[in-house]
Amino acid sequence: LVRGVGEADLAGRHVLVSAGGTREPLDPVRFLGNRSSGKQGYALAAAAAARGARVTLLSANVSLPGPAGVDVIPVATALELREAAVKAAPEADVVVMAAAVADFRPAVYATGKIKKVEGEEPAPVALVRNPDILAELSADRTRPGQLVVGFAAETDQVLAHGRAKLARKGCDLLVVNEVGDGKAFGTDTNEAVILGADGSETPVPPGPKEELADAIWDQVVARLG
Ligand code: CTP
Ligand code: CA
């Protein structure tokens, strides 16, 4: 994809992107986490900035350089991400939840390191649900015309699960990709279908995450008032 100079179709727009994966602490040295590298969210932020947007990037545990001209806000846990997202969303024309948010967190945080006890098996780890940030942001929009975009990684029945998830979350677009067997996580390429609440279905062929990012912004721009 060749991008010409002056294709600033997001100029004057403020976009909020979340990237990476949350970490839910068990104790001061351990967490429950996931394999998200943050590459897709960072590619989305960089592409939006290149297209003229003001970009706020909520970055959860990503070891990548911040894209030029992007306002990066680091977050660690799902609760921190939720707080930062709820605070920033009312100012955003577009919200893209590319972060892998932990569905559960340990019910108890041990303030001291959990130690082995001689001759004893470990206690099970009790978990509680984290809030669904995407569903909340979709439902609680205050900014007129705001668009909300979600992601879904599915291992099977990708389109059926994607359609159901789009409806459940109440977002405008859902970017669905198939994961498993080394697909998507930590790789530099991605393949996806962008589902629209309006019934649209836009397949994006396998390619760099930068190309998927631009395909997503194309769909967003087409829907912005
Ligand atoms: N998401 C979120 N808050 C959560 C979980 C997920 O905002 N607590 C967002 C993700 O950022 C993503 C979308 O919701 O944009 C879909 O995430 P996914 O894990 O596929 O959806 P879930 O509803 O958690 O469904 P599943 O049980 O398949 O994990
Ligand atoms: Ca989930």
From TrEMBL:
Residues 15-225 are annotated as: Phosphopantothenate--cysteine ligase. One of its GO terms (cellular component) is phosphopantothenoylcysteine decarboxylase complex. Binds 1 FMN per subunit. Pathway: Cofactor biosynthesis; coenzyme A biosynthesis; CoA from (R)-pantothenate: step 2/5; Cofactor biosynthesis; coenzyme A biosynthesis; CoA from (R)-pantothenate: step 3/5. Keywords: Decarboxylase, Flavoprotein, FMN, Ligase, Lyase, Magnesium, Metal-binding, Multifunctional enzyme. One of its GO terms (biological process) is pantothenate catabolic process. It comes from the Bacteria. GO terms for molecular function: FMN binding; metal ion binding; phosphopantothenate--cysteine ligase activity; phosphopantothenoylcysteine decarboxylase activity. Its EC number is 4.1.1.36, 6.3.2.5. Its cofactor is Mg(2+); FMN. It catalyses: N-[(R)-4-phosphopantothenoyl]-L-cysteine + H(+) = (R)-4'-phosphopantetheine + CO2; (R)-4'-phosphopantothenate + L-cysteine + CTP = N-[(R)-4-phosphopantothenoyl]-L-cysteine + CMP + diphosphate + H(+). Residues 10-222 form the DNA/pantothenate metabolism flavoprotein C-terminal domain. CTP binds at D103, K113, P131, D132, I133, L134, F151, K165, K169. Catalyzes two steps in the biosynthesis of coenzyme A. In the first step cysteine is conjugated to 4'-phosphopantothenate to form 4-phosphopantothenoylcysteine, in the latter compound is decarboxylated to form 4'-phosphopantotheine. In the C-terminal section; belongs to the PPC synthetase family. In the N-terminal section; belongs to the HFCD (homo-oligomeric flavin containing Cys decarboxylase) superfamily. This is Coenzyme A biosynthesis bifunctional protein CoaBC. It comes from Kitasatospora acidiphila. The lineage of its organism: Bacteria, Bacillati, Actinomycetota, Actinomycetes, Kitasatosporales. The gene is coaBC. The chain holds residues 182 to 406 of 406 of the full protein.
